[in-house]
Amino acid sequence: MSVIILGIESSCDDTSAAVIKDGLLLSNVIASQSVHEEYGGVVPELASRAHQQNIVPVVDTAIKRAGISKEDLSAIAFTRGPGLLGSLLVGTSFAKGLSLGLRKPIVDVNHLHGHVLSHFIRREDNDEVPEYPFICLLISGGNSQIVLVRNYNDMEVLGQTIDDAAGEAFDKCAKVMGLPYPGGPHIDRLAAEGDASKFKFAKPHIPGYDYSFSGLKTSFLYMLRDAKKLDPDFIEKNKADLAASLQRTIIEILLDKLKKAVADTGVKQVAIGGGVSANSGVRQAIADFCAQCRLKAFIPERAFTTDNAAMVAIAGYYKYLTGDFCHYDAVPYARVTI
Ligand code: KG4
Q1: CA 156, CA 291: separation in Å to the nearest integer?
Q2: Predicted local confidence at residue 276, as pLDDT
Q3: Rounded CA gap, 208 and 212, in Å?
């Protein structure tokens, strides 16, 4: 009999629902929240209210687009954490209510596992999935981690950021340049037209596989502050070169530790995930590195890089197969590691 999983994601500012049948994606609906734009960052209280408004139509659309009825579902998977507590509560409560109404089990999913396992979402035209063990570089607005993935439920964080995440480095530097939030995609766009070797910024010297991005942010900030004193139009005149140089530095920092981890573990496959894995420069750098070292690269479709319920549904699918269900007294958690 087929296993059909509804996934629900509400950890931050995207309300998403997806349906997966035996690992194959049937639908993936995402409602993004524009309400935060004017604040330059996600406002938690506004995010949870928007989730409440969005969740019923988003789930309904995902079920309809999948061509199933809700009675066909085998289980409901939901993001339990990490994320914003109020936002997570909406998805968790909705999943519990639907589960009680339909008499179907619930499966709780660690959002970070979802990002890693997004490479196992099969599509009609793409059913190539990684083989264990592999390394996943998980880079988002809240995390920068090198994860050794031995199985769907056996992941080890080899290294992670000790301060800012890679996405924060993009966003905070973009803010200093006067770009809208989130700045990552704007830097990406500008970098395509800039000279990446024009400016040099500080790079961290952290032992092991850990990352640090706060020094880069500070060095960027001071450089711009000093340059603006001499020429108030400095940023405007050098926008593209600044973006390209910043992006190059972030990629170098990311790749440096990743290469070390790959060499030390001897894995043959490398995946990337999380919002920053949408970055064109990061994607190219990973593809080049893997080609050079004869490694298989797994670079997600852009739709699966940011928060989406398809990754929650696939992570829930694997837990379902082993009967790893969740109780109704489960509460969301704001912080949790892999
Ligand atoms: O995984 P994600 O959607 O959620 C959180 O961690 O909250 O990641 C969001 C992050 C933001 O920092 C955003 O600027 C960054 O991913 N991002 C990018 C790009 N697209 C999204 N950074 C660089 N280049 C991009 N194209």
Answers
A1: 25
A2: 98
A3: 12
Q: What is the pLDDT of residue 21?
A: 98
Vertex 15: Cα angle to 12 and 20 (nearest 5) = 115
Q: Whose CA is nearest to atom 7 of ligand 1?
A: 141
Separation of CA 306 and ligand 1 centre (Å): 7
The half-sphere exposure of 239 on its side-chain side, counting CA atoms within 13 A, is 16
pLDDT at position 41: 83
What lies within 8 Å, CB to CB, of 55 at 6+ separation is: 8, 10, 15, 17, 90, 91, 94
d(CA 115, CA 83): 13
Nearest-angstrom CA–CA distance, 127 and 289: 23
- pTM (2 d.p.): 0.95
pLDDT at 114: 97
Q: Is the CB of 11 under 6 A from ligand 1?
A: no
Ligand 1 atom closest to residue 139's alpha carbon, by position in its atom list? 1
Query: What confidence category does residue 38 fall into, taking pLDDT thresholds of 50, 70 and 90?
Result: confident
Domain assignment of residue 180, given as a range: 134-302
Q: Which atom of ligand 1 is nearest to the CA of 174?
A: 14
**C-beta of 185 in contact with ligand 1 (< 6 A):** yes
Query: Does residue 36 carry a pLDDT above 90?
Result: no
Residue with CA closest to ligand 1 atom 20: 185
Identity of the amino acid at 196: A
CA of 142 to the centre of ligand 1 (A): 9
The three-state DSSP-derived secondary structure of 18-42 is EEEECCEEEEEEEEECHHHHHHCCC
Q: What is the C-alpha separation between 329 and 338, in angstroms, rounded? A: 22
CATH number of the domain where residue 316 is located: 3.30.420.40
Tokens at residue 122, please?
Answer: 């099969």
Residues 24 and 167 grouped into a single domain = no
- Using DSSP's 3-state secondary structure scheme, residue 150 falls into strand
Are residues 116 and 29 located together in one domain of the fold? Answer: yes
